[in-house]
Design goal:
Blueprint lengths: L14 E6 L4 E8 L12 E8 L2 E9 L2 E4 L5 E10 L5 E10 L5 E9 L2 E11 L3 E9 L8 E3 L14 E3 H7 L2 E5 L6 E3 L9 H11 L9 E7 L8 E5 L7 E5 L22 H21 L20 H8 L3 H5 L6 H9 L2 H4 L30 E7 L3 E3 L4 E9 L5 E4 L9 E6 L5 E3 L5 E4 L3 E4 L10 E8 L1 E2 L2 E2 L5 E11 L2 E4 L3 E6 L6 H8 L2 H8 L9 H13 L4 H9 L8 E4 L7 E7 L5 H6 L1 H9 L6 H17 L3 H17 L4 H14 L10 H10 L32 H21 L2 H14 L4 H14 L1 H5 L31 H4 L2 H13 L16 H23 L39 H20 L1 E3 L5 E3 L8 H11 L6 H4 L2 H11 L21 H17 L4 E2 L7 E2 L5 E4 L11 E2 L2 E2 L9 E6 L9 E4 L3 E8 L9 E11 L10 E10 L5 E7 L23 E3 L21 E11 H4 L3 E3 L4 H4 ...
Parallel strand pairs: 10-13, 10-15, 14-33, 15-17, 19-31, 36-50, 41-52, 47-49
Antiparallel strand pairs: 1-2, 1-9, 2-3, 3-4, 4-6, 5-6, 6-7, 7-8, 8-9, 11-12, 16-17, 16-24, 18-20, 20-26, 21-25, 22-23, 22-29, 27-28, 29-30, 29-31, 32-33, 34-35, 37-43, 38-43, 39-40, 41-42, 43-46, 44-45, 44-48, 48-52, 50-51, 53-64, 54-62, 55-61, 56-60, 56-64, 57-58, 57-59, 57-61, 62-63
């Protein structure tokens, strides 16, 4: 006999066979060999069920039997050995299948079990393995069964064929013939369609519809309704797992709420993306719920979370495989385990209505997971169960608290819904007999399980645990604790492939004692009592006896508190008009009658004892049950028109709970539930976010603005009630410190948030202090105090009343101006970032115990604002506006700022145009300017005790920048005496200029300042000091570089989270493929999202893919701890240090013996943005860094991470620099907020390097000065790649990008920088220049050591002065090689020509600058060159005018050079100060 997989040609023999044998036995045989349809997979299994007189006896199966085909191809012999389900008996079977005339196929079966032989003759009756009748009832004629095309939504497997799938075809593919019985399908005519259906009402329909059904018939019943009363997250439910014969689908819940009104037709408009998702989920839910009727369980609860099947949850699969991964791989099939069950499982456990759900095998408590296993969840979470008490009476419900707690240093998101009906938590009960029972809930509900963030253990940011109460009484198998004796309980928590096993608790069930004990026990433990409680009560007459029995038990028993609690469980059926279907069905319809509310007196009285017990004797463990009873009683009291009694009971319970130590916000949630239940307005104070909003939005104008009534008159306050509070005012900050301390002390002493809130309300309504100062102090409390964070308070995002922005209907005409940047300055998330940052870093007003993170506030102030300017200038240039220029103390500011069109504030008013600082302010700021420049020159500051402190000698690279930042911002008064408060007072001068008393412009507030264009000019002025100080320092990059290498080809920016194909291929000590490049980054400038905005810049999500390899493969045993630092910059200015934008910084580890690694890092993980906790579970640092608390609301807006770019694509550079993390000491990550801009809570800044490293100061490589590009060419641990940013502006409608003009191939492209002025002259484009009074011949040295590229010819870039600054004229420009140790040139200089020249090689350099024609010269290695040119009136720019005064030397006029001796002095001055030549390019090789 030969084994074959191929069936005879033209002879399909798989399917079901039925026939009789001897002794009244019959057999149903299933042969599963050849595919029964295109999409049905063969399992190569025989199975069958044996019956005696129609009653099932046993089921068997045989896997992979042997098959022999006859020569005539009309018969087959099958034989094999298998076993009986749930038994040890072996099965031997021989089957002869013969194809007769026509379609007739017959099988002769010889079956031997335990030595007994049976014979059957079985004709084939179906090609399917099971045949099941289905009835579907609808509660609305608008409802329908779903059909979905596998290609309808773009998310599907790439090779999946396009086809329509519905409930019946899905089961046909599984070999089940699901037949819809249209005659039995019923329309349930609901007289009140706006009222949701309860479990009790739907269960009643099921019981009536299935009454009188033939028990031998395979039948499934389902109901589809729009509104479901119990949860908006439940999409499907099985009402009775005891029979597994009915289920419900709810189309108004979860994703199904977006379903199209009817099944779409080909002629209909295309569905929206949400409608497609809803239709897919509808089909998935229908197949899934129907699967439960066949006793198919959730595969994730059986240890198969990665199975692509109808019985999984997409969320369970995605949790370990990535977002949307399930439907990208799901082929609309059951997996093989489920196919085996559906086709060949035992009759008594597969047939709907035949056996309890989930009872597949004897239960066993799972083994405790090894906590030493590095992948064990027990290293991250603990799952514990607790009992309210250790002794219960018979019939008393056992209340089990399940608690999940985060024990790790990371934030973790977990699924909630601990009731066994959701299949997330499994409960195991060991009976007194020793038998272990798995508790299968009477109901099974498919929940879109809400994720909850558990913060690190002991975190002050939020809860580290989640608890739910599970009531154990009645399950699918009956009552859980029926007999007296000792029981033990254990539980498991499952999420995806992870499982936790709880502790074990022991309880005693004591015998019930009282009158008529046996009669009471016998009646209580009947199924109708259990079902009545399990479904939440019922008004059906079939449960009248159960209801009356429970009520009498609660009223007559002295210990009736627990019986009263059971009665309360049934109140949902009585708190509304009850929908009860009538028995008679006519024309496929059945009517529903509404039962009005009964007399509630007896129901309420039955719960009186329970209420009294939990009020007076209840313990902490009883709080959840106590609350449940109170709210259930309140439902009935309200419909009984006893509002006053319901209110009194609720308020009394809330007071009791507060005395028991229940958290304020928990009590607030209970109160909110009560107020919503009773249709009362819900005060904002009971919602955490509303608490803060209510305080921050409060306005009180009914007072004398000059009044200083603040309680204690002896306190030295200068701030009146009507004065504008400013965080930039040192006196205001000092005044606020008293209130801040009061709040912190009150919270520390009482540990009661309500006490602090009451105090703040008292301050606001008592007119004791300035209103804005109170809000400022409360903001610091909300952001910094652990109690506020733990209770969920957050600083609100919109504290300034805004108005809709006045958008134009057409694109603005004319040249770009400041108004074109309104979208950037008024972005609400950016405004919030600046405001929030200044409240995180406000050292002067915080108690010292909360200031650990302030250790480098001065440096971070400078760095964060410098990065803001870099981003601002990138967008300015992209929209056509010049980079921002620093403000000069003397100038008249011509523009002003009026933002009344976008927001209202009683104190902040427009800043008038045409204002100039008064002379007193100018003199004061000139003095501070001199002091700050003196520090730059000397490198020293005067300390608080008159000591001299050197800023350059410290081994700590942050010491100098941090202290210099402190004196510029004046974060404290420590240095005020000598260096003033230039930054803060500058805000104050702008804020008060042109204003009436008690009024201010926007610059006086951190919440509004960034909306004013003058903010950026002022901060550019501030940044010139910080830049000048940074330029006195240098950073050597070669000394401590880690032994790794990276090239431009190793950096890819991609829209895909998966690296390019072969990107990670490594062989023979090198990367196999090196030809990789970044995709274009796409940004979009769209309409505003909230009031107060002019537009919203966004970008498509992107991912970095970075390859890193060891530089020395002969030594791979050492672990390399690395810091990956990522920056971008517009390509045109990529040698300007302060134009680089930090994008990310994170830790990465090359493990011992790991030669190389591929890093994938999503944009949402960026260290500079305001990261969301829910996005931070899969970042690369999650496993290699300690997670600490961050400032969750602090950070750059995610949607502004990229500059806007150009419509045609703006060239950008991306720089990846890898440093040694053991030196950086960046060993932590924050689970939220920005690490780079905001640091971490309660710890010092987590990076020892200077902020902005390695681009913070001029660069040295092996002791020689280097440009950014030069450093990247010389260092193995640094690489610079290319990409483009493409912007689409849709604010005013679609725009057609202007195509770039074609470039003639004959014109060489000069883009490679050979020499850059900033490297040698120490200047930048944004340096403050004024017209020079000098003219003549000038010469600029190009030092050979600074030349970083070579070619056959060069192009010289002369910079312009900028918009509205005028032109200047040059003449006779040339370039020549320098004579050694001389200021003369050797040989004939090469003339430098321009596209447009005048007489005598004269050219006018326009405001935007000019680039020369190619000059034929090739730079020689280590040779110096001079660029020589004449400057004619009106001359060029000078840097820092007045600093060198009349001592600047140039040769006098004409074409004649001065004597060589004269050039030495001229050179020393000119190369430091002249601003003309900025860049020399060479032809690309």
């Amino acid at each position: 006999m030969s084994y074959t997989v191929d069936p005879p040609k033209g002879f399909q023999f798989s399917g079901s066979y039925r026939g009789d044998g001897a002794d009244s036995e019959s057999l149903e045989l299933r042969i599963d060999w050849d595919p029964i349809s295109e999409h049905a997979k063969s399992l190569h299994v025989l199975s069958g069920d044996v019956f005696v007189e129609g009653k099932w006896q046993f089921s068997f199966f045989v896997k992979k039997p042997a098959v022999e085909t006859s020569d005539e191809s009309n018969s087959i012999k099958i034989s094999g050995t298998g076993k009986v389900w749930d038994a040890k008996s072996k099965v031997n079977i021989e089957v002869a299948v013969v194809k007769g005339d026509g379609e007739a196929i017959n099988a002769t079966v010889n079956l031997t079990i335990d030595g007994k032989q049976r014979s059957f003759t079985c004709p084939r009756y179906s090609k399917f393995f099971r045949t099941v009748s289905m009835e579907i009832d609808f509660t609305s004629d608008k409802l329908y069964l779903p059909t979905y095309n596998t290609h309808m939504h773009s998310s599907h497997p790439p090779l999946l064929a396009s086809r329509d799938v519905n409930l019946f075809s899905a089961y046909a593919d599984a070999g089940v013939d699901l037949q819809l019985d249209n005659d039995e399908c019923t329309l349930v005519c609901d007289p009140d369609p706006n009222t949701a259906w309860t479990n009790s009402e739907l269960y009643e329909i099921q019981e009536k519809e299935l009454e009188g059904e033939d028990s031998k018939k395979w039948k499934i019943w389902g109901v589809i309704t729009e509104k479901y009363a119990h949860s908006s997250s439940i999409v499907g439910a099985m009402f009775d797992t005891k029979t597994r014969q009915g289920f419900g689908l709810f189309t108004n819940t979860g994703l199904l709420s977006n379903l199209p009104a009817r099944l779409p037709k080909p002629s209909d408009p295309e569905l929206t993306a949400q409608q497609k998702l809803a239709l897919r989920h509808y089909l998935f839910s229908a197949v899934h719920e129907c699967g439960h009727a066949f006793n198919l369980q959730h595969c994730f609860s059986l240890g198969r979370p990665n199975s692509l099947t109808w019985m999984n949850y997409a969320s369970a699969y995605n949790r370990t495989n990535g977002s949307d991964a399930f439907f990208k791989n799901f082929e609309f099939k059951f997996d093989e385990v489920e196919l085996m069950w559906l086709r060949h499982g035992p009759y008594n456990k597969v047939k709907p209505g035949e056996g309890n759900w989930g009872k597949l095998s004897p239960a066993a408590i799972p083994a405790t997971i090894d906590p030493d296993d590095p992948d064990s969840w027990e290293r991250l979470l603990s799952f514990d169960i607790r009992l309210a008490k250790k002794k219960y009476l018979q019939m008393e419900p056992v209340t089990l608290e399940c608690r999940l707690q985060n024990t790790s240093p990371h934030s973790i998101f977990v699924e909630t819904g601990f009731s066994p009906q959701y299949d997330i938590v499994g409960v195991y009960v060991t009976r007194p007999s020793g038998e272990v029972e798995h508790v299968d809930s009477f109901k099974s509900q498919d929940l879109i399980a809400p994720n909850k963030q558990l913060y690190p253990r002991g975190s002050t940011d939020g809860p580290d645990r989640h608890s739910e109460l599970v009531v154990l009484l009645y399950e699918a198998d009956g009552f859980v604790f029926k007999d007296p004796g000792s029981y033990t309980i254990a539980a498991t928590y499952k999420s995806g492939s992870k499982e936790l096993v709880s502790n074990t608790v022991t309880l005693e069930i004591a015998p019930y004692k009282g009158k008529k004990v046996q009669a009471i026990l016998q009646r209580f433990f009947q199924d109708d009592i259990g079902r009545y409680i399990a479904i939440g009560g019922s008004r059906s007459a079939r449960y009248d006896e159960a209801r009356e029995f429970l009520e009498n038990l609660a009223l007559s028993n002295t210990d009736g508190y627990w019986a009263g609690a059971l009665v309360a469980e049934t109140f949902d059926a009585y708190a509304k008009d009850y929908k009860l279907i009538k028995s008679a069905k006519q024309g496929g319809k059945v009517d529903v009658e509404k039962l009005s509310q009964p007399d509630y007196t007896k129901l309420i009285q039955a719960t009186d004892a329970a209420l009294k017990y939990y009020k007076t004797k209840g313990k902490k463990e009883d709080n959840l049950l106590y609350t449940q009873i109170v709210l259930q009683r309140a439902k009935l009291l309200l419909v009984a028109n006893e509002m006053d009694k319901a209110k009194a009971e609720v308020e009394d319970a809330l007071n009791n709970l507060q005395r028991r130590g229940v958290k304020l916000l928990v009590i607030g949630k209970i109160r909110k539930t009560w107020l919503e239940m009773s249709n009362q307005a819900v005060p904002e104070i009971f919602d955490a976010k509303a608490v803060t909003n209510n305080i921050f939005q409060y306005q009180d104008t009914n007072f004398d603005p000059d009044d200083t009534a603040y309680g204690d008159r002896n306190r030295e306050f200068t701030l009146t009630l009507g004065e504008v509070f400013s965080q930039f005012n040192e006196k205001h900050l000092a005044a606020s410190t008293l209130i801040v301390n009061e709040m912190f002390n009150l919270a520390d002493e009482t540990e009661d948030l309500k006490s602090v809130i009451d105090y703040v309300y008292e301050l606001q309504h008592g007119r004791m202090y300035n209103q804005d100062m109170i809000k400022f102090a409360f903001a610091l409390f909300v952001i910094h105090h652990p109690l506020a964070r733990k209770e969920g308070l957050r600083y609100p995002e919109n504290t300034t009343p805004a108005k809709p922005s006045p958008f134009l209907e057409t694109r603005p005409a004319g040249p770009a101006d400041e108004s074109w940047m309104n979208y950037w300055r008024n972005d609400s998330d950016f405004v919030y970032h600046h405001d929030h940052w200044h409240k995180v870093y406000v050292g002067q007003s915080l108690p010292s115990s909360t200031g650990t993170h302030l250790d480098r506030q001065g440096e971070l102030f400078g760095y964060m604002h410098q990065q803001m300017l870099a981003r601002y200038n990138a967008d300015r240039e992209a929209v056509g506006v010049p980079p921002v220029q620093p403000y000069d103390f003397h100038e008249v500011e011509p523009h002003g700022c009026d933002l009344t069109a976008v927001f209202n504030h009683p104190y902040y008013h427009p800043r008038p145009a045409g204002l100039r600082w008064d002379n007193n302010n100018i003199r004061q700021f000139q003095q501070w300017d001199y002091s700050l420049k003196h520090v730059i020159q000397t490198g020293q500051i005067i300390g608080p005790n008159m000591e001299t402190i050197s800023l350059r000698d410290s081994k700590d690279p942050s010491f100098g920048p941090n202290n210099y930042g402190h004196i510029v911002e004046a974060t404290t008064s420590t240095f005020y005496r000598y260096y003033g408060s230039l930054h803060n007072m500058g805000h104050g001068v702008f804020g008060s200029a042109g204003q009436q008393p008690r009024q201010s412009s926007y610059m006086n507030s951190t919440a509004t300042a960034v909306r004013d264009p003058i903010f950026y000019r002022w901060h550019k002025r501030v940044d010139t000091y910080i830049e000048a100080f940074s330029n006195t320092l240098t950073t050597e990059l070669a000394a401590d570089a880690p032994p790794v290498r990276i090239t431009p080809n190793d950096i890819v920016i991609s829209s895909s989270s998966t690296p390019p194909e072969n990107f990670g291929s490594w062989a023979n000590a090198k990367w196999v493929t090196t030809d990789f490049s970044s995709e274009d980054v796409h940004t979009e400038l769209g309409p505003a999202k909230v009031d107060g905005e002019w537009g919203k810049l966004t970008h498509k999500p992107y991912t970095y893919h970075i390859r890193v390899a060891r530089a020395d493969l002969s030594n791979v045993k050492e672990q390399l701890n690395l810091t990956i630092r990522v920056f971008i910059c517009p390509a045109r200015c990529s040698n300007e240090l302060r134009r680089w934008i930090e994008m990310d910084k994170f830790r990465y580890i090359l493990q011992p013996n790991q030669q190389c690694g591929v890093i994938t890092r999503k944009d949402k993980h960026s260290s500079v943005i305001r990261r969301n906790p829910e996005d931070m579970q899969d970042d690369i640092e999650h496993s290699n860094s300690n997670t600490v608390s961050g400032f969750c609301e602090c950070g750059w807006p995610y949607h502004m991470l990229f500059p806007c770019g150009l419509a045609n694509g703006e060239p950008y550079k991306i720089c990846v620099f890898i440093s040694d993390n053991s030196i950086d000491q960046q060993g932590v990550r924050t689970h939220c907020g920005s690490l780079s801009y905001c640091g971490a809570k309660d710890r010092k800044y987590p990076d020892k390097r200077q902020m902005g490293y390695p681009l913070a100061t001029p660069i040295l490589v092996h002791g020689r000065k280097a440009s950014v590009h030069d450093a990247a060419q010389q260092l193995k641990n640094m690489a610079i790649g290319d990409f483009k940013i493409i912007n689409t502006d849709i604010r005013y409608g679609p725009v057609t990008p202007t195509p770039e003009p074609p470039q003639s191939p004959s014109v060489p492209v000069y883009e490679k920088v050979a020499w850059y002025a900033q490297d040698q002259l120490n200047i930048s484009k944004q340096s403050p220049f004024l017209p020079s009074q000098w003219n003549g011949t000038f010469r600029i040295l190009i030092n050979g050591s600074d030349i970083v590229a070579s070619g056959d010819s060069v192009v010289v870039q002369f910079e312009g002065r900028g918009s509205r600054k005028g032109t200047y004229t040059i003449k006779n420009a040339s370039i020549g090689k320098r004579q050694p140790r001389s200021l003369a040139t050797t040989g004939q200089p090469i003339p430098i020509s321009f596209p447009v020249t005048g007489k005598g090689q004269t050219v006018v350099i326009p405001e935007e600058g000019a680039r020369s024609l190619p000059a034929q010269i090739q730079f020689e290695e280590d040779e110096d060159y001079f660029i020589t040119f004449q400057i004619l009136q009106p001359s060029c720019y000078l840097r820092n005018p007045g600093q060198h005064g009349q001592s600047l030397y140039s040769s006098s006029g004409g074409d004649k050079l001065a004597k060589q001796a004269d050039w030495k002095g001229a050179y020393e001055r000119v190369v430091r100060n002249i601003y003309g030549v900025s860049t020399v390019f060479v032809m690309e090789n």
